[in-house]
Specification:
Chain A: Keywords: Cell membrane, Membrane, Transmembrane, Transmembrane helix. The structure holds two protein chains of two kinds. Chain A is mainly alpha-helical. Chain A is built from 14 helices and five strands. Chain A is globular. Among the domains of chain B are: 165 residues, P-loop containing nucleotide triphosphate hydrolases (Rossmann fold, 3-Layer(aba) Sandwich); 72 residues, no CATH class. The chains are: A mainly alpha, B alpha/beta. Strand 5 of chain A pairs antiparallel with strand 9 of chain B, so a sheet runs across the interface. The complex binds adenosine-5'-triphosphate (ATP) and magnesium ion.
Chain lengths: 341, 516
């Protein structure tokens, strides 16, 4: 109930914002702009899906931006310098990402360290390794890249739904299915509700943690590959700070930073909102692109305040007799959340 | 106390624990404990707060690693290393602390980790159908798709129990399952337990309610300070002897006489409420709370007791009526307002909502006092130590170490520390919601004594309790609630268990007649 309200609010903001943009610049309301928006933010959508799992489970993953950077450098080097076929290079880099995520998850679980610290270390590590590999931008010229870049589904109205946009949409759908329809997904929510209780209920908490961070890193790896298609290059400084954009998208999408609640759809809407702001600024032409950050910051603020407000509201309404009926004559006492702490 | 570990003569043994030991640092929480559970037996595990009951359960189910000892299940040695291993081996447990997930639906909570799936996809419909059927056996007919947090503590507890029972284990362990259930729900639970026992499942039952122990159990095992005191058939064990086994001393039998009551008009009114209420929450009520007087709130779970307490404290905003102190109307819109007038409120869900697990006992005790004084007037360390030690001694909090993180205390001792937190603020009005829940017989008597003492010192008290004996013992007046309305106020000699029961049960019959 509460989760769907925040998604509804996000959707409303997106639609209203889009309508406002379209009023000012009627050209925005075209499949071309929308399709471009999807293409430009494809990599962001993919990492954000992974981040959604991590945040719902009560964690955070600050390493994703660096993992994207590492992936682009590694892929470019593998294809261009080491002569590895692109598909094999992708497989290799994804395996490395999976191992990296598994290592972070293991450290978090075994040493009971805060995910913030562990993934912060992971962030420096991954970025450092990409610098070690190469400090310059490496163009990728293999024919597969241009073939994929040229591929697109033509939409009525002149839009081009590119391969990477399609990849993002497919990945988002798969992630939504995984999160909302499987036992794994239920366990992710459970972990965010309470780690201790989840363990006592007999869920293997350790393996779950490891898998969640693996998933996040692999999706960051996929995002990195998509990013390398987008820029046709590998560069160790790419995607700096993307972890923060990602977290912002997830939170704007209605996922609670404290865990236990959220959705992939919301995250997708969050990504679109960020993309929309960017598009507006591009259309305007006079605004500095840093306005994107400012607008995102303001929105984040508003959304977090909204979430708090909604929660207070929900707390109030849950005090009214809920729909519960005992078979006996009386209705159960409905407990309010803590009053005094 | 001879031959403490003699196995029950009649039943084949199912769970056999020998020489189990567990230390936390220097503290021996379990010291060579033996325990034998027979097939189809309901076995009470008793002892004071901190005796080691929950620790025994956690060691057996692999939540804590054991230091020494063996555990045999149906003759086969087991050594579970996590709650999951224990479940797989056939031991299902409802732990003392809430072990469910408030953010998930009731159905997910019942089936987490074992949801029905098809091709890896959870079958929501099927899961909900089964969840409903399962809860129906417990007399619950609720929307199982709603998040668990939207239901009462009692419903949550029943959900936890239903989950454990449904794991169709051979051994079912229930650590204080009845602490937040009302009489009716306890009855349902007991009938389920009897059915399971008939099927040959062995049940370990931890409770501080001795009546319940005598009602449902076949055997008892008593622990004290981590040591085994003895195991007996309940039929041959008079209650007095059982209490002596638990406490190691006699219980001073002063607790069950009623305090002499004085005419209540003689006392100074602390705060009064007129037509105070909130739509859909509690019907408007009149209530006068006087200094040096205990007002008991009696009624079934859900009758509006906690709701009344929250309105009185300001935790909930009333939409009708007014509150007055010394004849002047006051604003009572938030807990801060309440605290500002010197009100204290010790909520029922202390265990999950009141404690700050990582802070020490001392820090937890001085928390509210410090908050009242404000940050710019910190309590000195010496003052803090003094206050903490005073209440540790007064409430017999064990171990008596103010520097221990409170999360490491046993459940009952955590509750005592929370009570201390509010007492330390020396409030004018103290609202206690189920102050003796989860507290052992010895400490129970202490708390009742304390309530009376506070009252003599001129405090106004509003106490909620489901135990009518207890309420009768300390209350000068008793307000009876039904269906979220105050229906009767009993005073003086009318304060009796039978008259309270009559007021509670005067419900449906006449009301219906009047209606029809
Ligand atoms: N994780 C822990 N670390 C350190 N000490 C602990 C821990 N858990 C329990 N203890 C200590 O072990 C002792 C036994 O605690 P336990 O929880 O088993 O008591 P209990 O018999 O269940 O009491 P209650 O009736 O209050 O629930 C207590 O002194 C407690 O402080
Ligand atoms: Mg206990």
């Amino acid at each position: 109930m509460k989760a769907s309200t925040s998604v509804a609010i996000t959707a409303f903001v997106l639609v209203a914002g889009f309508a406002l943009c379209a009023l000012q610049f009627p050209n925005i309301a075209s499949t071309r702009v929308v399709a471009n928006l999807l293409t430009d933010n494809a990599f962001l959508g993919i990492v954000a899906a992974g981040m959604t799992f991590v945040i719902i489970s009560g964690g955070i993953d600050l390493s994703v931006g660096s993992v994207i950077g590492f992936t682009t450098v590694f892929t470019a080097l593998a294809i261009e310098r080491w002569g590895i076929p692109p598909l094999a290079a992708f497989a290799m880099v994804l395996v490395l990402c999976a191992l990296f995520g598994a290592a972070m998850g293991t450290v978090i679980h075994v040493f009971e360290l805060p995910p913030f610290i562990v993934t912060l270390a992971g962030m420096f590590l991954a970025r450092g390794v990409s610098f070690l590999l190469s400090t310059e931008s490496i163009p990728i010229t293999t024919p597969i890249y241009s073939a994929v870049s040229d591929f697109a589904i033509r939409l009525p109205g002149g839009g081009r739904l590119t391969a990477i946009a399609i990849a993002m949409l497919v990945i988002l759908v798969l992630c939504a299915l995984l999160l909302h329809l499987t036992r794994f997904g239920a366990n992710v929510y459970a972990l965010g509700g309470s780690r201790a209780a989840t363990a006592l209920m007999g869920i293997p908490v350790g393996p779950m943690t490891i898998r969640i961070y693996m998933l996040s890193s692999v999706l960051a790896g996929l995002a990195g590959i998509v990013f390398s298609f987008y820029t046709a290059a590998g560069y160790s400084l790419s995607a700096v700070g993307v972890e923060l954009d990602t977290i912002a998208a997830v939170v704007i999408g209605g996922t609670l930073l404290t865990g236990g609640q959220g959705s992939v759809i919301g995250t997708f809407l969050g990504v679109l909102i960020q993309g929309m702001i960017q598009t507006y600024i591009n259309f305007d032409g006079t605004l500095s692109s840093w306005w994107t950050k400012i607008a995102t910051g303001v929105l984040l603020f508003v959304f977090i305040a909204l979430q708090q407000g909604l929660m207070a509201l929900a707390r109030r309404s849950s005090l009214k007799p809920a729909g519960a009926k005992l078979a006996g004559a009386k209705s159960p006492e409905v407990k309010p959340a803590g009053a005094l702490t | 106390m001879s031959d403490p570990s003699a196995p029950p003569a009649t039943r084949p043994s199912l769970l056999d624990i020998r020489g189990l030991s567990k230390s936390f640092g220097t503290l021996k929480a379990l010291d060579g404990v033996d325990f034998t559970l027979g097939e189809g037996e309901i076995h009470a595990l008793l002892g004071e707060n901190g005796a080691g009951k929950s620790t025994l359960i956690k060691v057996v189910t692999g939540v804590f690693a054991r230091d020494a000892g063996t555990v045999r299940l149906a003759g086969r040695e087991i050594a579970p290393r996590s709650a999951k291993d224990a479940v797989d081996a056939g031991i299902a447990t409802v732990y003392q602390e809430v072990n469910l997930l408030p953010n998930l639906s009731v159905a997910q909570n019942l089936f987490l980790g074992r949801q029905p799936t098809r091709f890896g996809v959870v079958r929501e419909g099927e899961m909900k159908r089964r969840a409903r059927a399962l809860l129906f056996d417990y007399g619950l007919d609720i929307d199982v798709g709603a998040p668990l947090s939207s239901y009462s503590v009692a419903v949550q507890h029943i959900t936890a129990i239903a989950r454990a029972v449904d794991l169709s284990a051979r051994v079912l362990i229930l650590d204080e399952p009845t602490a937040s259930l009302d009489r009716h729900e306890v009855e349902i639970l007991f009938s389920v337990m009897r059915k399971l026992a008939e099927r040959g499942i062995g049940i370990v039952f931890v409770s501080h309610f001795l009546d319940q122990v005598y009602e449902i159990c076949d055997r008892v095992t008593v622990l004290r300070n981590g040591r085994l005191i003895g195991a007996r058939d309940i039929a041959d064990l008079p209650r007095i002897d059982l209490i002596r086994m638990m406490l190691g001393r006699e219980l001073a039998e002063t607790t069950h006489e009623r305090a002499a009551s004085q005419p209540d008009t003689a006392r100074e009114v602390c705060v009064s409420f007129k037509g105070f209420g909130k739509q859909g929450y509690v019907a408007p009520f009149d209530l006068e709370l006087r200094r040096g007087e205990v007002v008991g709130l009696a009624g079934l779970l859900g009758s509006g007791r906690t709701e009344t307490a929250r309105l009185v404290f300001g935790a909930e905003r009333a939409d009708s009526g007014e509150a007055k102190i010394g004849g002047k109307a006051i604003r009572l819109n938030s807990p801060r307002d309440g605290a500002g007038f010197g009100f204290g409120y010790c909520p029922e869900e202390r265990k999950t909502e009141g404690i700050v697990a990582d802070l020490t006992v001392r820090e937890n005790i001085v928390l509210a006092l410090q908050a009242r004084r404000g940050l710019h007037r910190p309590l000195s360390r010496r003052e803090q130590d003094e206050i903490a030690m005073r209440y540790i001694r007064m409430l017999d909090i064990r171990p008596p170490d103010p520097e221990r993180p409170i999360g490491l205390l046993s459940g009952g001792n955590q509750q005592k520390a929370l009570l201390a937190r509010w007492l330390a603020t020396s409030p004018k009005l103290l609202v206690l919601d189920e102050p003796t829940r989860g507290i052992d017989v010895g400490a129970h008597a202490e708390i009742i004594r304390l309530v009376r003492e506070l009252c003599e010192q001129g405090l106004a008290l509003l106490v909620i309790s489901s135990e009518l004996d207890e309420i009768v013992t300390y209350s000068n007046r008793v307000v009876v609630l039904r269906d979220r309305a105050h229906v009767e106020e009993l005073k003086g000699d009318a304060v009796e268990v039978s008259s309270i029961l009559a007021a509670i049960a005067a419900d449906t019959a006449p009301a219906h007649e009047a209606a029809s």
